Batch of 4 targets.
Target 1
Amino acid sequence: MKILFVNNFRGRGGGEEFLRDLLPGLAAKGVQVGLVCRPNTPLADMFRNSTIALYPIDRPGGLRGIRTVLQTARVIRDEGYELIDIQRGHDIVQSWVAAKLSGKKPLLMYTPQVSAFSRYRFLLSRMDAIVTISRHIRDTLIAYIPKMASRTSIIYYGIDLDKFKRTHVPQGVLRKRFNLPPGTKIIGTVGDLWKNQIEFLDAFLRIRKIVPETRFALVASESGIGQVQEFKERAASLGLTEALLWTGRLSKEEMLSFYADLDVAVCTHRNEGFGIWILEALSMETPVVAFDAGGVRDSLEGCAAGKLVPGAEDMAKEIVAILTNDALRQQMSDAGPHWTRKRFARDRMIEDYYTFFNAMIAEKG
């Protein structure tokens, strides 16, 4: 089985973390795995000197992009890839044309990470399969292109649970960095500020009226987008500026200590594709409270370590209940790792994709 993944994203987000966990697992099962990505990107660095066949192909704009398509077509033709798994919407055109030019007629599959499809209706309908990461994305896509219902499936993320153990990482790092007094409660979130963190500020104000020394830690850039300034102005108007802890971006190792220092994690994004970081927090024994919207539902519905709420007022109530009840928090903390191990283990994800790819190729004959 020969599968080529295409992902030309310049940065590192949930989709890239997904590939980090999936591709080596497929290769270990005997799949010939290739990856087309931009050179000098986190993804290229991630798989350099690995068992994954790496094809660093630049992706310039305009007519110069034709060279990218031709190079991708050559990879498909020369290596005989049977299936192309497209990871980002902006890679659909490149991959579809390259597959046509290769002369090999590989199967085409799209794995969307977000629910934005408006530019790709024509080409999405030409995919042999679409695998989404949540019901939210599946339902949004089918509502947009109803005829794709029979070709659209869900395979949930899975993470390497052995890496996410509270007892295996340094604790107190966040508290030491910001010189927090003993007993200070920390609420934390992950993601740049276009993810609706501003809506949490009203809830945070309510929380601090009952638990005054609570802090809100954000793994996010403190500058660069308009939402940051809007967030800061709103926080200042509520008198919350000094209660914010800006960590900036953290490495994977630093994220483990971040989760370990949190009393509660919050997800405020109402259009989240899924939210890998939520699984990580749960695995690190951190209770999670999230708005009842988007793909987050798939990771928290029925989870004893998490709460889904309709709005800021209910979010404040649930968080206060956790922060002021040690027994409740411990109960939720204990439930998190059990939940992720049961439903979101990396080995399960790898096996699900392996089975899915096998079935697609076998059906083609």
Target 2
Amino acid sequence: MRSSGGIIARLKATDDHFPAIFFNAHVDTTSNGKKPQLKEEDGLYSSETGFLGADDKAGAACMLELIDTLQANPSAKHGTLEFIFSTQEEVGMLGAKMLDLSVLTARFGYSLDAPGEVGTFQLFGETHLVLDFTIIQDFKKSHISAINVARSVIHKLKQVHFPQSMTHEVKEFKGTTDSLGSETVFIQMELAAFMPLEEIMPYLEEVKQVFF
């Protein structure tokens, strides 16, 4: 079953004595705007800078491995297994909200995402801000294009001292021009962190100062 919210896959039960169970992982990931610097230790790769995408591709990989293992071992006994690959989790769990969960036969399952003891869950998520900025330049008057202004602004964003735990990324950059010589550039930026909004506000103000 596929929708814009993701994919729900199902393995039929090999033994009806076992209950139906679902597993969930989201297939989208995020970035903190930094290039990963890979470190390898005992065959495992990590990065102290950019994200490698284990959130939550690690969970999706576990689900795919389980499917492959069970299909390769048809004698293994299990109930109906349902696998939910959701999208757009990093922007407010939009994918999960679009999925038709009424098609599930499982009444309980496991989300392969957040850390912690099995059976626990998180009571809060990260604060997520979407910032829209528009730059309008009259090239006939200023002789400086809006694109060049935007490039300068994005370069100055590197001077903002974001904490390592905060993700920040320019998600959209596009421009238009009209016959009168006016140029418009639209920039969309995202900030996200596991901290209260009031703790993010100082960094938001730094970003605003770069633009204004």
Target 3
Amino acid sequence: MAGDEGVELTAEAMQLSDVSKTVAGGGFVYSRLDCIGKQIGGLGLLAEYPFLRHLDLSQNCIKDVAPVGKLQHVLSLNLSSNAISKLDWTPQELPHLLFLDMSSNQLAELPQLHMPALRRCDFRFNRISTCADFQGHSTLQTLRLSSNQLASAAGLNKSPKLEVLELSENMLADLNDVYRLPCLSTLDISKNKFESLVAPWHEMAALKALDVAGNAFAQVESLKPLEVMASLRSLTVAGCPLEEQDGVNMRLEILIFQCQLQTLNGEEAA
């Protein structure tokens, strides 16, 4: 039985599929590798498959991801549910990677992501307490950071194409360090520690859908910043103390602040 370190990747454990031409067109190779839940720890064998484009290595015992970085043609990479605590790929590695799943690992920080083609990445269910080194990405469209240990949003900025940002189930109380997200259309900050919606919303001018459910809004005034969100069309704000206050019609108060809403808590706003 494999220990905590897992076992080395073997040809027998690999499920190879999707035969395609090489990039140069001089032959045919397998482009997809699936090896799920096989207690794999070592990835040395990957060096013999340089033309892989899609890898699913989830539910294993992987700690060292360096061998993956040597694969220059990877488009999608699933390393979820492993034991990875560090990403140390160099700026020259994984140049074509589009989709990265690192959920359910042991990462303590969100690093700078050098992959120039990256579109979507998932870092949910880690131990991430800081994003300070991230400092934005020029092509990233979706970033999922729910269920971590973030108390600050510092570093989540300068991402001109980011459309979806998920930060639910963290320890955030403000978004003061978020800026230069001009294309952000969906933001989930539910189940955090927000007491007010005061935030640099002008840095997220395209925001259409906002989920702030399960936060600590206790005063009507805490929702007043809704007034400046000109593009907002969908708001979820259930599960906050304000709902329980006698004499407060939270739905009406929200619609006073933001009359352009189309859906409120999953229902038609009108």
Target 4
Amino acid sequence: MRPTGSVEDLVGHRLIEYCVTQMSGPFDVRPYTDFDLTVTSIHNVIEKICPPGWEFAWTRRRHDGLIHVIEGAATFSASEWTHTVPAGGVLYVEREDSYRVVAGSDGGRLIVANFLVERSGPIRLSLRRVVTGRSALYSTLFGELVHAWTGKAIGHKIRCKSTLLSILYNVAHDTIQEKLHARGIAQIQPALTQIENAFHTDVRVADLARAVGVTPAHFRRVFKDIIGYTPKEYILYLRVTRAMDYVKSDLYSIAEIAERVGFSSGAHFSRVFKEHTGCSPIEYRRGV
């Protein structure tokens, strides 16, 4: 099955916006569109005031963790990595990690959340370990997390899981933005916006190239270098993705869906749909 989902989905709306820790070779959207996670349980949420030079070591952690440095700075080190996290920064630590933390010379204050997540998707993915931007946002979210966990109000576990997902989403969002911008996505963003707003119409490469100020031939090369697929392939991905939602809804006939997502006929739509999903629209609707 070919990857589905728009770049707008990848950087703006879905929790499945997660990054490959080391990305090389042709860009593949599957890690971003097919990866998901669920916070299954929360072990604890603790605020720690650290005196100058305070040290602590975790060995083979049993939980995933998020650490927010509120004040001061702290250095976290393991056998394969060392990160100094400044005030406002966030560190993500995976289950089974062993590491040591040392507070800075002025001490500091941390919020530590330990929890378990279940991941799904075709490729093993990891969040970037350290995020240092948008400190005000993370301060607010971690503050809400501590308040909900310590207050133990009705439904506090649901509230805490929701807040943790918001934190994880934003960590992932920042990571994906960095990865995509490093690949030069900004130079084709006007064309991407045009495609995503009009993929169900007759989108012409000449118009897309004009939107970014290059020739059609150059646009095709740049687009494929950045996205990994030609403009035509990408448009088909968007059409099939939207069609999958319509098919599952039972609200539209196959002919109506074909027209809504930009296919010339129901037969053409059914053929392309099966090429991308491995089953016909009717089979997909029945859950075959």
